[in-house]
Amino acid sequence: MNNRTDILRLILLLLILVLLNVLGSFQYFRLDLTAEGRYTLSEPTKEVLDGLEDKVLFRVYLEGEFPSGFRRLSNETKRMLREFRAYNDNIEFEFVDPSAGESEEERQQLYRQLTEKGIEGTQLQINEGDQRSSQIIFPGGVVYYFGREGVFTLLKSQAGASPEAQLNTSIQSLEFELANALRKLQANDRKGIGFVEGHGELSDLETEGIGRVLKESYDLARLDLRSFEVDSVSGQISIAVKQAQLNRFDLLVIAKPRETFADLDKYLLDQFVMQGGKIIWLIDAVFADMDSLSTKNQALSYPLDLGLNDILFRYGVRLNDHLVQDALCAEIPVVVNQVNGVPQYEFFLGFYFPLAMPYQDHPIVSNINPVRFEFPASIDTIVTPGVQKTILLSSSRYTKTTQAPTNIRLSSLNEQPQPEEFTEQYLPLAVLLEGTFTSNFKNRLQPRDGNGEELSLIEESEPTAQIVIADGDVVKNQFQRGEALRLGYDKFTGNQYGNEDLILNAVDYLLDDSGLTAVRSRELQLRLLDATRIRGSMTYWKTLNTALPLVLVVLMGLLLNYWRRRKYAK
Questions:
Q1: What is the pLDDT of residues 53-93, one digit of tens each?
Q2: 505 closest CA partner among 233, 284, 214
Q3: Residue 96, burial from CB neighbour count under 10 angstroms (0-12, 13-18, 19+)
Q4: Which residues of 224-263 are buried (b: 16+ CB within 10 A; e: fewer)?
Q5: How many angstroms separate the CA atoms of 424 and 401, rounded?
Q6: DSSP strand pairing (379-381 vs 131-137)
Q7: Distance between CA 94 and CA 192 in Å, rounded?
Q8: Which residues contact 221 (CB under 8 A, 6 or more apart)?
Q9: Residue 53 to residues 50, 89, 480, Cα–Cα distance (Å)
Q10: Quick one: pLDDT band at residue 217, thresholds 50, 70, 90?
């Protein structure tokens, strides 16, 4: 009877296990017991994966013999892709060693192909004891979906950060980088970005560096605010047509204007915002010219009257008419001589060229390099109901300001900074505005059309967002041999600043309806071993791990022998 009961219990247990497996195949379920939810995908990432309609292939070029840090990055990438595949079985991935080619020519050809795709190689210096070697790696990959392909980068470089910190940042960014690359391939309706012209803004060439990158995900065009179609019958300009042109864009970029904005210009921008449009303002409040400083050894700076004070004040910020100097600054080249017609440079600390750092943790500025500014002003935030202000970038704790107008002398760059002069700190240089804005023309005289009639006015905006950056040069690229360089790259020092990442992150944040950019600031705590303590106690632990099992075996043998003797002696 007992045997029969036991058999029935066993059959029942097996049936329950089979039933649980069947139910599990229909219901996705994984249990994450980590404190920070390391193995739990965010909701925006799940939405991206839910939108897949076909197979996706991630080809990752991070395979081979690496030091432990890069092996960890490779393993974490595999783990993240497995999480993607566990959620949606349309995900496929493969890891490729780009250095595994049979011949040097084959390897170099693959290196060139990866570089052309935008996956930059990194020369890795490997130190193992007294031996040193180098290896080139390509920490990135390509994702293929519906006949399209996109590139993603796995290694995040940060100026001044240790290799461990950079790897930590890279691992924290994995979910965003992989999901964002996939999201860009899914987008069927690309959003439009308009670079405003008509007020001496930066030219197409001067913004080509950022334009190349933005074109991978967005449609770019330039829009002259002061160019209107004229009615052939009445001879009047058509403001409605200009508004329709503006409304084709989701985001406007106003990059370093030099001429005053008329009321009609501001009306067009204001009504664009009222209808939910986004704007990135890159504004110089004070005129200062680096070319004059280099050639004439001095430059006169003075406040710029762009006519934007009222509209920016209404939206919640005020640009101050002074120049910010910062002890944390970029080195700038100054021509000190010429040899055979070739200029000779010396580098000086450019206190007027602050390296702005994130003021607080936010997806737009999370884990980016310092952003290079040139002659910036500071920004004051104004109390405006319904608008939330977030300071994105600020000066350092050692800052001072100089009221404009003022004469900037080249000789001042040779002077050592006096700590007692740099008494101001953390002055805002970039501010995010989010919420419902009030029209700049509410309770004011409104612009009129060609017939003298007041233009229609929307007084309160839909929920939207804007970003104000107190320097137009943040988005301006340098040139080398007539070619536009990557935004943020300094050809004189070879430094890559965070300007490109700032603008890309800002655009993604403003135009991202999925909320995926919030994943960028997600933090994962890596519980790493102390390398210094490991090296110091390596011999001890090796000896212990080798000798202890032998000692235990011998002791067990002696104890067993002693026990047997006592047993049989009785």
A1: 889 999 999 888 877 778 888 999 999 999 999 999 999 99
A2: 214
A3: middle
A4: ebbebeeeeeeeebebeebbebbeebbbbbbbbbeeebeb
A5: 8
A6: unpaired
A7: 34
A8: 192, 193, 194, 195, 249
A9: 8, 11, 44
A10: confident
Q: What tokens appear for 343 in the block? A: 């200029």
For residue 156, the one-letter residue type is K
> Spelled out in words, what is the top-level CATH class assigned to the domain 191-287+302-321+360-399+417-521?
alpha beta
Which burial class, exposed, middle or buried, applies to 476 when counting CB atoms under 10 A from its CB (0-12, 13-18, 19+)? buried
Which of residues 171 and 235 earns the better pLDDT score? 171
Kindly report the CATH class assigned to 35-184: alpha beta
Residue 435, pLDDT > 90, answer yes
pLDDT at 114: 85
- Helical pair 163-172 and 174-186, crossing angle rounded to 10 deg: 40
**Element spanning 531, H or E:** helix 531-536
Considering just the CA atoms, what is the radius of gyration of the chain in Å?
31
Residue 465 host element (H or E): strand 464-469
Which two tokens mark 132? Answer: 């040193």
pLDDT-derived band of residue 534, with 50, 70 and 90 as boundaries? Answer: low
For the cut 60, the answer to whether the pLDDT of residue 538 exceeds it is yes
**In sequence order, what E strands does 248-397 have?**
251-255, 278-282, 286-287, 298-303, 317-319, 322-326, 329-339, 342-358, 371-372, 379-381, 387-394
Model pLDDT for residues 550-569, shown as the tens digit of each residue: 888 888 888 888 887 777 77
* Both structure tokens of 562: 């002693």
Residue 431: count other Cβ atoms within 10 Å of its Cβ: 23
Look at residue 316 in the predicted model and tell me its pLDDT: 96
Pairing of strands 192-197, 122-128: unpaired
191-287+302-321+360-399+417-521 and 35-184 share a CATH fold: no
Residue 169 near residue 158 (C-beta atoms within 8 A): yes
Q: Give, as one character, the DSSP assignment of residue 471.
A: -
Q: Please give the DSSP secondary-structure letter assigned to residue 344.
A: E
Q: 313: which 2 tokens?
A: 């004040």
What torsion do the CA atoms of 534, 537, 538, 544 make, to the nearest 10 degrees? Answer: -130
Contact 395, 425 (CB under 8 A): yes
pLDDT higher than 80, residue 408? yes
Strand order in the sheet with 91-95: 91-95, 56-60, 140-145, 148-153
d(CA 465, CA 467): 7
- Residue 474 DSSP one-character state: G
Q: Collapsing DSSP states into helix, strand and coil, what is residue 265? A: helix
Write down the number of H helices and E strands in the chain: 14, 25
For residues 438 and 314, is the Cβ–Cβ distance under 8 A?
A: yes
Q: How far is Cα 416 from Cα 75, in angstroms, rounded to an integer?
A: 48
Instruction: Return the domain boundaries, the chain.
Output: 35-184, 191-287+302-321+360-399+417-521
Q: What is the mean pLDDT of residues 334-359?
A: 80
User: How many Å apart are CA 466 and CA 511, to the nearest integer?
Assistant: 11
Is 350's pLDDT higher than 90?
no
